[in-house]
């Protein structure tokens, strides 16, 4: 993936130009699938382009991974972001798979097609909402948001900001004080400028 180099201060300048808020939060038209079970990572390992086993391998594993879903011939079908929800290797693996909401049913059918005898449950998560967060000042982002299910840097590139998964209807100003809800078209323009 080609990403134009832009520094964190460049992100801060961009966000400050958006009404001077600490952070801009953008609602995304993406959906989440929950995968839970002992075989969750092993099941996804051959179906996605990234090494999914690192999500459950150790406690210092990244909380999110970017990947593409593959068909039988190895061609890319969908772009996905995976999120680890379980806290330690002793817990049962619980992974959220983010995909475009228009292909949620197709992704779910694709995964269930290959689920043969795997100890994995696959279910949509309509009670969760997904947000992109562009920080105005990195010190304004909370280290651990209590109301957030997950708050992590975007795994694709630093210039893409952060990803926030929260319960539907959660108050974003309580999760990220001083933030404002931005127009998703501004986020898309920011993505396109990065290449």
Automatic annotation (TrEMBL):
Record InterPro entries: TrmE/GcvT-like, YgfZ/GcvT
Gene Ontology molecular function: transferase activity
Domain of life: Eukaryota
SUPFAM superfamilies: Folate-binding domain
Any one cellular-component term (Gene Ontology): mitochondrial matrix
UniProt KW keywords: Transferase
Single GO BP term: iron-sulfur cluster assembly
PANTHER family: TRANSFERASE CAF17, MITOCHONDRIAL-RELATED (PTHR22602)
Name of the protein in its database record: CAF17 transferase
Organism field: Cisticola juncidis
């Amino acid at each position: 993936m080609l990403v134009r180099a832009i520094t964190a201060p460049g992100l801060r300048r961009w966000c400050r130009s958006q009404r001077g808020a600490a952070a801009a939060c953008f609602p995304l038209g993406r959906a989440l699938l929950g995968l839970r079970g002992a075989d969750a990572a092993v099941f996804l390992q051959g179906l996605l382009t990234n090494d999914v086993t690192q999500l459950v391998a150790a406690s210092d594993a990244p909380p999110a991974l970017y990947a593409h879903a593959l068909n039988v011939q190895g061609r890319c079908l969908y772009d996905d972001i995976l999120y680890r929800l379980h806290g330690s290797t002793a817990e049962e693996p619980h992974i959220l798979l983010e995909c475009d909401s228009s292909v949620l049913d197709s992704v779910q059918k694709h995964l269930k097609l290959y689920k043969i005898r795997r100890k994995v449950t696959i279910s949509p998560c309509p009670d969760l909402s997904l947000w992109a967060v562009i920080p105005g000042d990195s010190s304004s982002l909370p280290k651990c948001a209590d109301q957030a299910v997950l708050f992590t840097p975007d795994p694709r590139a630093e210039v893409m900001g952060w990803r926030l998964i929260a319960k539907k209807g959660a108050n974003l100003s309580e999760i990220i004080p001083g933030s404002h809800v931005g127009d998703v078209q501004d986020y898309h323009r920011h993505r396109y400028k990065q290449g």
